[in-house]
Amino acid sequence: MHTSLFTSKSSYELDKLCIARGIKFIDLMENAGKSAFVKIEKEIIPSLKKFNNNILILCGPGNNGGDGLVIARYLKNKGYNIDISFPVSSSKKINKYLKENLNKLDVDEKKFQNIKLNKYSLIIDSIFGIGINRKLSKNIINIIKKINKTSSCIVSIDIASGINADSGELMPVSVKADHTITFVAPKVGNYLLPGKINSGEIHTISIGEKKSDILKVSKLSKLKLNTPDFWIKRFKWPSMTDHKYKRGHVLVRSGPTISTGASRLAAVSALRAGAGAVTLASDSDSLLVNASHLTSVMLKEINNTDDFFNFVKEKKINTLIIGPGCGVNQITKELVIRAIKSEISFVLDADGLTLFQKNPNELFDLLNKRRKRENIILTPHEGEFNRLFDFGKMSKIDKANRAANITKSTILFKGNDTIISSPKKISLITKDSSSFLATAGSGDVLSGICGSFLGQGMKSHYAAAAASWIHNEIGLDAGPGLIAEDMNKFISKIMSKKLKRIYENGN
What we know:
14% strand
């Protein structure tokens, strides 16, 4: 099953489904707290280098605080030194579920102001849950800042207090968790910046729900983690009857002499990712520069737009990559316009997007007139995205979804929280994004992989998802010191080892 991400609404709906099946709310809280306790005792506490048996549970006045009290009871019964505190309100102002759990726990409440936080090896944050969508008060902000200054290991329950579960926004601060134990499914805010930074390691646990319940509520968020099980059955693995042109012929537009590197990176990555043939179209001045660096990639001297598209027709090119290092000029613009009108598959990146920053509607109108809409991938980073789409303040996932609907295209919104969004499709977040990918030329490599998969016959949504996953695996495998020139060497390694194994297991 694909890994769903929950919104606050879907989490509340799941509770309703469980209650409708006869599970009392207090029992759901008990299940959640007990499962969290098991995770803490079996995995988190043993991982701590220094542990002095002292644990502090910080409880809020809502249901998240009730989960914390259940955890406290189980920890106390196991012999740990437990202190509890209600930092934002006293225990006199808690709901009935918390009072019921507090009565089962023979521990005195400590005033937060009197607590020496560094006394504790472990602090459990159950102050606020997934319902936070407003700015926190100055008092609460100061409390959270004090918590974050400790040297203690911090475990947040369901979501780190202060993170908006639906957008990843901080309200305006949040607890900086080392671990987040979340119920049933990760929350959207666990994987969107800046909330992702403060979520730490994500652990997902059960509260007694059924698989059918998860399937029902997961439709509410329409958002999943980008894992191979989503697209692997659509991956075009080579067959015994394939020849090079059956594997797709990708045409990449080269930039001018001084900026040919970006297009070469895209071209080589397209070839490494499985395209049967890749041609780099260069003007007469750039041809020799490219020839001195390339062997497997074919070269073609093309000096104008007419010659470019005559070559597309002559050689039965089925996918274009336009943008990397092309230059923000009239020639590039003519190529983009004719590519859109031609109905050919294409990837539009970098300069190909920036061309339209002064008049984005020109691009949108052209894209909306196309008949074929599942063969276009736009790959903007945040700067390129904001130059085209002026959406104001909204979550990254909402921005990506809106952009996909406006352009009728697949949007691969790059970043440490990369989003893949297409009209009428489940949106995806590429998890565990590697910061080592933040290097010049990395996006050009990604464009090449996208173009390769389009050329091999994958539809744009799945091609973008597969490309983003492989691209991220490069960063995870390579680690520090990664530069763009290295990246293409990792593509074949990841595809021949990791992806091949996943493909064979899935088929």
